[in-house]
C-alpha cells in the first residue's frame, strides 16, 4: 500500500516537474522569438520618453540652482515644443512605410518603432556585440524570405560582415541605423537630428 502511495507521489512529482520544465522551456523559446519581449535600454528613442527626461532634468537642476530656474524652464519648454513638433512630422513621413517588414542589427529600436508604428520582424544579433550562431543566421534568413523583408539595417558601431551574410541570397537591401548618433555634431539640436536621421534611413531603404 505504501509503495502505491510512493509511486503515485513520484509520478505526480515527475509530471509536475516535467510540466514545469516544459512551460519554462516554452516561455524561454517564446521570449527569444518575440521581438517585443527582448530587453531594450534605448529609452531615448521614444520622443515621449525624451520629453519626460527633459522635465526631470529641468526639475532637478532648478532644485540645485534655483537662481537659474527661469532659464532652465525656457530651455526645457523650447526643446519639448521642438520634439513634439518633430514627432508629428516624422509620423507623417513614416506613415507610408509603417507596414513594411525589416530586420535590425540588434533589438535596440522598440521605443522608436512603437512611437511611429513601424514593423521590425527580427534582429540579426541577440546582443549588439555578440555574433549570431549559424542557427540564428539561418532563422533570420528564413524570416527575411518568408516575410519579404526588404531591408536589413546595420549599425556604424559594429562590423557589417554579419549583416552581409544574412542578406546574401535574399532580395533584402542593406541600410544603416544609428541609435547613438555617432556621426552627428554635438549641439542643442543633436537629439532632433538623431531622430531625423533614423527616419531618413528607414525611408531611404524601405520607401
In summary, what is this structure?
The protein is an alpha/beta fold and 207 residues long. Helices cover 58% and strands 10% of the residues.
Q: What this model shows, in words?
A:
The protein is an alpha/beta fold. It has a single domain (43-206), classed as Nitrogenase molybdenum iron protein domain (Rossmann fold, 3-Layer(aba) Sandwich). 58% of the residues lie in helices and 10% in strands. The protein has helices at 2-33, 47-64, 69-94, 110-116, 134-147, 161-167, 190-206; strands at 101-106, 119-125, 151-154, 173-176. The chain has a four-stranded parallel beta sheet, with helices on both faces. Helix 3 runs parallel beside helix 7 (190-206). The longest helix is centred in the N-terminal third of the chain and has 32 residues, at 2-33. The protein is elongated. It starts with a helix and ends with a helix. The model is unreliable at 1-5 and 12-37 (pLDDT under 50).
Amino acid at each position: 500500500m505504501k509503495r502505491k502511495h510512493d509511486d503515485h507521489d513520484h509520478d505526480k512529482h515527475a509530471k509536475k516537474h516535467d510540466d514545469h520544465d516544459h512551460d519554462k522551456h516554452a516561455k524561454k523559446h517564446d521570449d527569444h522569438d518575440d521581438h517585443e519581449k527582448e530587453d531594450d535600454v534605448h529609452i531615448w528613442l521614444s520622443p515621449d520618453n525624451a520629453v519626460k527626461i527633459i522635465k526631470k532634468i529641468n526639475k532637478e537642476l532648478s532644485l540645485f540652482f534655483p537662481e537659474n530656474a527661469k532659464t532652465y524652464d525656457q530651455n526645457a519648454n523650447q526643446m519639448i515644443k521642438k520634439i513634439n513638433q518633430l514627432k508629428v512630422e516624422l509620423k507623417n513621413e513614416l506613415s507610408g512605410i509603417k507596414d513594411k517588414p525589416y530586420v535590425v542589427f540588434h533589438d535596440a529600436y522598440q521605443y522608436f518603432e512603437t512611437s511611429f508604428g513601424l514593423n521590425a520582424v527580427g534582429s540579426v544579433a541577440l546582443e549588439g556585440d555578440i555574433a549570431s550562431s549559424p542557427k540564428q543566421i539561418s532563422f533570420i534568413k528564413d524570416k527575411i524570405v518568408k516575410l519579404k523583408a526588404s531591408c536589413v539595417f546595420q549599425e556604424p558601431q559594429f562590423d557589417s560582415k554579419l549583416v552581409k551574410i544574412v542578406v546574401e541570397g535574399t532580395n533584402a537591401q542593406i541600410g544603416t541605423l544609428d541609435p547613438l548618433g555617432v556621426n552627428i555634431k554635438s549641439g542643442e539640436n543633436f537629439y532632433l537630428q538623431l531622430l531625423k536621421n533614423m527616419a531618413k534611413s528607414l525611408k531611404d531603404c524601405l520607401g
